[in-house]
Design brief:
Blueprint: H1 18-24, H2 27-30, H3 34-50, H4 56-74, H5 87-99, H6 112-148, E1 153-158, E2 161-167, H7 168-193, E3 195-196, H8 212-218, E4 223-224, H9 228-233, H10 236-263, E5 270-272, H11 290-314, H12 328-352, E6 353-355, H13 357-363, H14 371-380, H15 385-401, H16 411-417, H17 425-428, H18 431-436, H19 446-461
Parallel strand pairs: 3-4
Antiparallel strand pairs: 1-2, 5-6
C-alpha cells in the first residue's frame, strides 16, 4: 500500500509509513470538534478580513466555503479519512476543493496548536452549560420528592448503623446541596475555559497584524491568553473540568449506592418501577437496580480520565507537544459519561422509584435511634449530659436483653432508672417529635426543612 505524500512542506521527501499514518491520525475522534473548528475558522477568517490581511471578498468566500462544509457535515455528506489526519486538515482540504486557492489563505496567522486549543474550549464551554442544565433537572427531581416528603421519616445512619430518625426530605436535600456545589464549581471552571488562545500561533505569536480581541469577541470569549506559550500548552481548564466532573460522579454514585441499599429486600424503603429496572436471566423473581449500579461503575472511568490528564501534563515542556493529542478522547468520554449518568439518575428519581411509606414508618419505630433524645431529656432537667448518656446506654442494654424498645418501657421502669422521668418522655421519644425537635439551623426539623426547600427553589429559579 502506498501512502499519498503528506504536503507538510518540501522539507519532507517521502510519505509516512501507512501504519504510522494510522497511529498518528486523530480524525477518528477529533471529528467531534468539527462544528467548533468551523466556528473558530469563520471567526478567524472574519478577523483576517477585518485587519486587511486578506480582502473582504476573500473573507466572504472563506466564510461561505466553511458554512458549506458545515452543511455537508450536518447532512452526513462529509466523511474525512485517515489520510486527512485530523479535523483541521480535513476542513482545510475540503475548503480548498470548494473555493480554490483562496482557501489556502485561511491558515494565515494561525497554527494548529492555537486552533485545536480554541476548538476544545468552544466545545467544553458548551458541554459545561449542558451539564449545568442537567444538574438543575436533577435538583428539580429532588425538590419534587422533598416537597412531598417533609414529614415522611427515614432512618438516618452513621457507620451504616441506625443513628437518628430524620426527615426524608432532609436526606434528599443533602444531595441538592452537593449538586449545587457541583453547579457552582462548573460555573467557576467555565470562567477559565472561556479564554481565547486563538492567535497565539504555534508558540510565539505571529508576524501578521492580527487582532486577537476581535476574533475573541466574535467567539464570545471573555478574554484572551496573555502569553502565547501558555495559550497553546494550557490544559488546566480540562483538568479542572475533569475534577469537577469527578465530583459530580461522586455525588451521583453516593446516591446510587443508597438507592441500591434502599431497594434491597433487607431495607425495602423504595420499590423500583419496571421502566427503570431489569430482571435476571435465570431468577424470575428478581428486579435489579441496573441504573444506579451502572452509575456507580461508570464513576471509576471518569476518575481514570482525570488521572490520565494529570499524568499527561505533568512532564510536558513548553509549548505544544504531540502528547496533547491524547487529551481529547478521555475528555469526550468524561462529558458523555457525566451527561448520560445525570440523565439516567434524573429519570430514575423522577419516574423510576416509589418510596414505601408504611415500611419507612415501621423502620423508624423498630430501633433505639431515639436514645439521644432520652439523654437530652435528662440533660434538659439538670442531669449532667455525660451522666445522662451513660444512664441511657444502660437502659438500651437492659431493654435489648428484655426484647423491648424504649417506647415499651412502663412509667415505673422509667422512674426506677431516674426520678426525673415523667409522662412526657413518651412524647419526647416519638419519632416524629424526635425529628421535629431538631430545629437548629440546617437541621432535620420540619420547619427547617421547609425553609431549606424554599431557599433551594429561590436559588433554582432566580
Amino acid at each position: 500500500m502506498t501512502q499519498e505524500k503528506k504536503t507538510w512542506s518540501d522539507r519532507f521527501e517521502t510519505s509516512l509509513h501507512p501504519a504510522i499514518a494510522v497511529f498518528n491520525a486523530s480524525i477518528g475522534f477529533d471529528i467531534e470538534l468539527i462544528e467548533y473548528d468551523l466556528t473558530g475558522s469563520v471567526a478567524h477568517a472574519q478577523m483576517l478580513a477585518h485587519t486587511g490581511i486578506i480582502s473582504a471578498e476573500e473573507g466572504d468566500t472563506l466564510v461561505e466555503g466553511l458554512e458549506q462544509i458545515r452543511e455537508e457535515y450536518r447532512e452526513d455528506n462529509f466523511h474525512p479519512g485517515v489520510e486527512d489526519e485530523d479535523v483541521h486538515f480535513a476542513v482545510e482540504k475540503r475548503l480548498i476543493e470548494i473555493v480554490g486557492d483562496v482557501g489556502k489563505k485561511l491558515h494565515t496567522g494561525r497554527s494548529r496548536n492555537d486552533q485545536v486549543g480554541t476548538d476544545i474550549r468552544l466545545y467544553l464551554r458548551e458541554q459545561i452549560r449542558t451539564i449545568q442544565i442537567q444538574i438543575r433537572a436533577f435538583q428539580q427531581a429532588l425538590l419534587t420528592h422533598a416537597e412531598a416528603h417533609v414529614e415522611t421519616l427515614i432512618p438516618g445512619y452513621t457507620h451504616l448503623q441506625r443513628a437518628q430518625p430524620i426527615s426524608l426530605a432532609h436526606h434528599l436535600m443533602a444531595y441538592f446541596q452537593m449538586t449545587q456545589r457541583d453547579w457552582e464549581r462548573l460555573d467557576d471552571v467555565f470562567k477559565r475555559t472561556n479564554i481565547s488562545p486563538l492567535g497565539c500561533g504555534a508558540l510565539a505569536g505571529t508576524t501578521f497584524p492580527i487582532d486577537r480581541h476581535y476574533s475573541a469577541n466574535l467567539l464570545e470569549f471573555d478574554r484572551i491568553y496573555q502569553n502565547s506559550l501558555d495559550g497553546v500548552s494550557d490544559r488546566d481548564f480540562a483538568i479542572e473540568f475533569s475534577a469537577a466532573a469527578s465530583l459530580v460522579m461522586v455525588h451521583l454514585s453516593r446516591m446510587a449506592e443508597e438507592m441500591i441499599f434502599w431497594a434491597s429486600k433487607e431495607c425495602s424503603f423504595i420499590t423500583l418501577k419496571d421502566s427503570c429496572a431489569t430482571g435476571s436471566s435465570i431468577m424470575p423473581q428478581k428486579k435489579n437496580p441496573d441504573i444506579p449500579e451502572l452509575v456507580r461503575g461508570k464513576t471509576g472511568r471518569v476518575f481514570g480520565h482525570l488521572q490520565g490528564l494529570l499524568v499527561l501534563m505533568k512532564g510536558l515542556p513548553l509549548a505544544y507537544n504531540k502528547d496533547l493529542q491524547d487529551d481529547k478522547e478521555g475528555l469526550f468520554d468524561t462529558v458523555r459519561t457525566v451527561q448520560g449518568c445525570l440523565e439516567a439518575m434524573t429519570i430514575l428519581l423522577s419516574e423510576g422509584i416509589e418510596f414505601q411509606i408504611s415500611r419507612l414508618e415501621e423502620a423508624v419505630n423498630e430501633d433505639f435511634s431515639n436514645a439521644t433524645d432520652v439523654a437530652d431529656y435528662l440533660a434538659g432537667k439538670g442531669v449532667p449530659f455525660r451522666e445522662a448518656y451513660n444512664l441511657v446506654g444502660k437502659v438500651v442494654k437492659t431493654s435489648i436483653a428484655a426484647d423491648k424498645l424504649l417506647k415499651d418501657l412502663t412509667m415505673e421502669e422509667w422512674q426506677a432508672l431516674h426520678p426525673k422521668f415523667e409522662e412526657d418522655i413518651y412524647e419526647v421519644i416519638a419519632p416524629k417529635q424526635v425529628v421535629a425537635a431538631r430545629n437548629s439551623y440546617g437541621g432535620t426539623g420540619f420547619e427547617q426543612v421547609r425553609q431549606a426547600i424554599a431557599t433551594a427553589k429561590d436559588l433554582m429559579y432566580s
